[in-house]
C-alpha cells in the first residue's frame, strides 16, 4: 500500500511539474509572437482628420463610422483585449467550455495574437494560441501547453481563415476598418457593404450588415475554411454583435457570437465578451 501511494504521489508531482514547465514555455512562446507582431508594426503619426475619409465610402459605411468613432480624431494602432466566454468543444447542448483569453491587435500591418485558456474539464486547461503575424496564420492547442491536441501551420487556406477573423474582429478597434488602414469598401445595399483586406499574399472579403443604429450587426462570408477531419472545407460563416457600449471613446460591441451556417441549421461555436480593452493611438 505504501509503495502504491508513493507511486501515485510521484505521478502527481511529475504531472504538476510538467504542467508548470509547459505553462512557462507557452508564456515564453506567446511573448515571442507578440514581440514579433510589435516589431513588424509600423509606427505612424496622426494624419489628416479621420472624417475626411468618409466622403468616398458607401453610405451605410460612412454612417457606421460616424456612429462608432464619436469625436475620435486619432486612429488606433494597437489594442489589447481581455476576453471571457464559451467555446463549443462538442456539438451537443452540454458541449460548451468556458474560456479566458488575452489578445493583442496591431493595425499596420494587420495582425493579432490570441492566447486562451479553455476549461475542458475540472482541473484540466487547454491552452490555445491563434495568431496572424507577418502575413501568416498559426494555431496550436495543447493541454497545459504541453500535450498538443490541435495545430495548424501557415497555408494559403489557413492564412485566409485567420485574416477573415482579423477583419471581423476589427469592430473592436473601428479605425482599423478605415481605408487608410488598407480596407476597401464596396456598396451592396442600403444597410450592407463589402470590405476587402490584403495582408502578406492573402486577400479576403467580408459582408458587413448594419443595424438601425448604423453599427455593425453582423459579418458574413460564404466561404470561410472549416477544418473537417484534416481537410479545409469552405463553409458559410457569420459573426453577430450586440449591445454596444463606449470604450476609449469608441462604440464597440460588448457581446458577440460566431457560427457556421450549415445546411438546415446554424451552429454557434463561440460566444464572448470583452472584459477589458486598452488602446494605443498613432503618435503615442
Question: In words, what does this structure look like?
Answer:
- The chain has a single domain (2-42, 58-281), classed as outer membrane lipoprotein receptor (LolB), chain A (Clam), CATH 2.50.20.
- It is 23% helix and 51% strand.
- It contains 3 helices and 13 strands; from the N terminus they run ααββββββαβββββββ.
- The chain has helices at 2-40, 59-69, 156-169, and strands at 76-88, 96-107, 110-121, 124-133, 136-143, 147-152, 184-189, 192-199, 202-210, 216-228, 231-247, 250-262, 265-281.
- The protein has a 13-stranded antiparallel sheet.
- A hairpin with a 2-residue loop joins strand 3 (110-121) and strand 4 (124-133).
- The longest helix has 39 residues, at 2-40.
- The chain is globular, with a radius of gyration of 20 Å.
| Stretches with pLDDT under 50, minimum 5 residues | 6-17
Q: Roughly how much helix do the residues carry, as a percent range?
A: 10-25%
Main sheet summary:
13 strands, antiparallel
Largest sheet, order of strands side by side? 6-5-4-3-2-1-13-12-11-10-9-8-7
- CATH hierarchy class name: Mainly Beta
The assigned structural class equals alpha+beta
Question: What is the architecture at the second tier of CATH?
Answer: Clam
Tally of DSSP helical segments: 3
